[in-house]
Design a protein that fits this description.
With 381 residues, the protein is α/β, with parallel strands linked by helices. The chain has a single domain (30-364), classed as SGNH hydrolase (Rossmann fold, 3-Layer(aba) Sandwich), CATH 3.40.50. The protein contains 9 helices and 9 strands. Helix 5 (191-209) runs parallel beside helix 7 (244-265). The radius of gyration is 20 Å and the shape is globular. The model is unreliable at 1-22 and 357-381 (pLDDT under 50). Residues 1-17 form the signal peptide. Keywords: Hydrolase, Signal. Pfam families: Lipase_GDSL.
């Protein structure tokens, strides 16, 4: 059984205020999902040929606009520095899109990956400042998608059937870290209330810019165990920031607002809205507790030369064990191997929600291979 939990919301079949006539939406099924639309931060972004180097697939906050041709000719870059993990991340493993070293056209993937995440993003400048002037917050990621991304995809000859598209959101890692010392939290506001406000803002943007475009299937991911990063494990229990309680509060706020999002549309009957929450906190804590089950030997440290040339192929030249044996890639990011571990369980989770008996393998990008062992990350089934 998967260690993950699905948000226990009655997934009613819903309609919007302006339903399309005679269009009956089918329930979520991962096997029939053709597009993954991703939003998030450095845990989720992939490098694009039209993106800001080391930050995005396309554009930045100072260059949000683009013509359809720019998106539709954009390619996923796969190399040692094209993600924050030193290799493919969870959305690439999940879709099988962009796994091969070099360039991948998302349109050629069985499950197309269109990634609007931005490294270093917080949810909104309403609550927290940008890391850089060019950082694209979650709110602006969804605005960029609504104003330019969705129209571009809709103009192509491979226009997505929005009923077969999954919107994936993994947000909050920077928000909880940036606010952990309370200095950026409004005076008198508690952590739980602050996190609730963050999630309200997130869901308002999602509803305004993505739901309003007709997307109805949503996957949300809880925080990784940030209380167990290499920096935190060196601290006394009372000095860890963020601590496990804070991570729990943040996840509670996500669940609360996901329930509210569902409830706002749950009285309709003809347009299928499905909200799924993948509990990465629980699963990744299990990986940290039982690393040997996943081929991991080091859960408390990382290779200090993680960003040096050839460290992925010859870590011994820097005095490091193989990167695939580490849980952590650096002080705050997980290795590509850990992302593969996560994606494999998430894949099982998603296919279970779609009524499949077994998680899917053999999709384009890793056809004929078991798991993702060809890359040296993940493991064989």
């Amino acid at each position: 059984m998967s260690l993950l939990t699905l948000l226990t919301i009655p997934f009613a079949t819903l309609v919007s205020a302006h339903p399309k006539p005679h269009h009956h939406h089918h329930p979520f099924n991962w096997q029939s999902t053709t597009h993954l639309i991703a939003f998030g931060d450095s845990y989720t972004y992939v490098q694009g040929t039209a993106g800001r180097q080391n930050f995005s697939f396309i554009g930045d906050s100072q260059h949000l606009s683009f013509p359809p041709s720019t998106l539709l000719t954009n390619q996923i870059v796969q190399n040692q520095t094209s993600t924050a993990e030193g290799g493919p991340n969870w959305v690439e493993f999940l879709t099988g899109c962009g796994l091969e070293p070099g360039l991948t056209d998302p349109k050629t993937c069985d499950t197309q990956l269109w990634d609007f995440a931005f490294g270093g993003a917080d949810i909104s400048t309403e609550w927290l400042p940008l890391h850089h002037p060019y950082t694209t917050s979650f709110v602006n990621q969804t605005r960029q998608f609504a104003e330019y991304g969705d129209p571009a995809l809709s103009s192509s000859d491979q226009v997505p059937d929005k009923d077969d598209a999954l919107v994936a959101v993994w947000m909050g890692i920077n928000d909880i870290n940036d606010s952990a010392d309370r200095e950026l939290i409004p005076a008198g506001m508690s952590f739980p209330d602050f996190y609730e406000n963050l999630q309200v803002t997130l869901f308002e943007a999602l509803e305004r810019n993505v739901f309003a475009k007709g997307y109805r299937k949503f996957l949300f991911v809880t925080l990784p165990p940030l209380d167990r990063t290499p920096g935190n494990v060196e601290r006394e229990e009372g000095e860890k920031l963020p601590n496990a309680t804070m991570v729990g509060w943040f996840n509670d706020a996500l669940r609360n607002q996901a329930e509210a999002f569902q409830a706002r549309h749950g009285h309709h009957k003809e347009e299928g809205v499905e909200v799924m929450i993948y509990d990465s906190t629980t699963f990744l804590n299990h990986v940290l507790d039982f690393p040997e089950e996943f081929g991991i030997k080091n859960t408390t440290d990382y290779c200090r030369a993680y960003d040096q040339p050839y460290v992925d192929t010859d870590p011994g030249m820097y005095g490091c064990q193989p990167l695939d044996e580490f849980f952590w890639f650096n002080t705050g990011h997980m290795t590509s191997h850990t992302h593969a571990v996560l994606a494999k369980d998430m894949l099982k989770f998603l296919t279970e929600q779609g009524g499949e008996e077994k998680y899917q393998q053999g999709r384009k990008g890793h056809r004929g291979k078991k798991g993702w062992s060809w890359w040296g990350r993940g493991w064989s089934s």
